[in-house]
Specification:
It contains twelve helices and eight strands. It has helices at residues 2-15, 28-59, 68-93, 123-131, 135-139, 153-161, 175-191, 207-221, 234-247, 272-277, 302-326, 343-380; strands spanning 95-101, 112-116, 141-146, 164-166, 197-200, 255-263, 283-293, 336-338. It has an eight-stranded mixed beta sheet, sandwiched between helices. Helix 6 links the parallel strand 3 (141-146) and strand 4. Helix 2 packs antiparallel against helix 3, helix 3 (68-93) packs across helix 4 (123-131) and helix 7 (175-191) packs across helix 9 (234-247).
């Protein structure tokens, strides 16, 4: 309890309405020991969770007999469990995610396009933490991610769920081909599965890598230039909006959810290694959400939509400037909610997946050989 109280004190300090200040780091020996232990714990967690998740996916396949929606509901629940455990790693490390702005869970029943800014690999588990109390959102969501994530063990889970992976930096010659693939994927995975939310990072890369190129593009086009953000790319967003409207005219995207993610120190953004094995001090991550009716965007042409998106990003830039100058996004009195995790619930989930993984590794090969022998015996009767 004392350790938890100390964490809360550090959390309140990080949450105070003042410019984020650096905190003294722990000793190097303690840091190495803590990182090694956390690396061991998170590695063991990944080893047991993903195989256990695959076991459950196999077990829920018969639900397809009772209707595709029944299976999708079960698969969505399992998908949320896995995302919660990934986000829980950050909670254990002492990374606290604060939510402010509009209550986005009110829009879980309608189609929304979420547009966060992109600074590091930790942005994804930060959004996982944001979603962990919003079950209906996570079960009916689709992510648009870089294709490299597909080759990880979490990427395989995302493939089964129906998330989209795209390759960037292919050049203008491949752009049309990629846009056609996006439309086909939306038809097969988003509309067919009645997904409601789609998350895409329109900046197309990390802020530190794209800032210079983004400013040059904005200067050339006469668009606003940003110091805390890189400009949004319009082609992917436009394709998502118009394709869904074309494929399912009765249920198009109705809202844009503008998400602003800010770390305590933008020059040293958290990365996925920090989220998994960090031995550092507690740190807060702040997320601001603003819901914008999609009717407010000018969709007459690509150029008009691009100007609208840059206007949205200009408001996001003001929030980022306010946060790093005053410690808040829009108002000092704006309420902020801590995205809490239940340690007991996560312990139960880890225990369940550990038991399933043990059963998979222990009895899986035996069951496979038994099934193959039965198939061989039945096949021999026809020879």
């Amino acid at each position: 309890m004392q350790k938890e109280a100390l964490r809360v004190v550090e959390m309140k300090r990080a949450h105070s309405h003042s410019p984020p200040a650096p905190v003294r780091r722990p000793g190097w020996l303690r840091s190495i020991v803590v990182r090694a232990l956390r690396l061991l714990v998170t590695t063991a967690n990944q080893i047991v969770v993903v195989p256990g998740w695959f076991c459950l996916i196999v077990l829920v396949q018969p639900l397809r007999l009772f209707g595709h929606s029944c299976y999708l509901r079960a698969e969505g629940r399992l998908y949320k469990h896995l995302l919660d455990l990934v986000a829980y790693w950050g909670w254990v490390q002492g990374f606290y995610v604060f939510e402010s702005g509009d209550a986005i869970e009110k829009y879980a029943g309608v189609r929304c396009l979420m547009l966060p800014n992109h600074q590091s690999t930790a942005d994804i588990p930060t959004l996982f933490a944001l979603f962990q109390s919003k079950r209906e959102v996570v079960e009916n969501i689709m992510w648009v991610s870089d294709w490299e994530l597909m080759f990880s063990h979490i990427g395989i889970v995302c493939l089964i769920h129906g998330d989209m992976f795209i390759r960037q930096k292919l050049g203008s010659a491949q752009r049309e081909k990629t846009l056609l693939k996006i439309e086909q994927h939306l038809k097969d995975k988003f509309v067919a599965k009645s997904r409601r939310w789609c998350v895409v990072f329109p900046e197309g890369g990390f802020f530190r890598k794209r800032k210079a190129a983004s400013q040059l593009y904005a200067q050339k086009k006469g668009l606003p230039m940003f110091e805390r953000l890189s400009g949004p790319r319009v082609f992917g967003v436009e394709k998502l909006i118009k394709s869904v409207e074309k494929l399912d005219a009765k249920k198009p995207f109705e809202y844009i959810i503008d998400v602003t993610i800010a770390y305590q120190d933008q020059s040293r953004c958290l990365g996925l290694p920090d989220w998994l094995i960090s031995g550092k001090y507690p740190e807060s991550v702040h997320v601001h959400c603003k819901v914008i009716p999609i009717s407010e965007l000018k969709m007459e042409s690509t150029e008009s939509l691009e100007k609208s998106l840059f206007e949205v990003w200009a408001e996001k830039e003001k929030r980022m400037q306010n946060f790093y100058r005053f410690g808040y996004f829009e108002s000092e009195k704006e309420p902020q909610k801590l995205c809490r995790f239940s340690d007991i619930r996560c312990l139960k989930l880890n225990s369940m997946y550990a038991c399933l993984s043990f059963a998979c590794w222990r009895y899986g090969p035996t069951l496979f050989h038994w099934v193959m022998n039965k198939v061989a015996i039945q096949s021999s009767d026809y020879l």
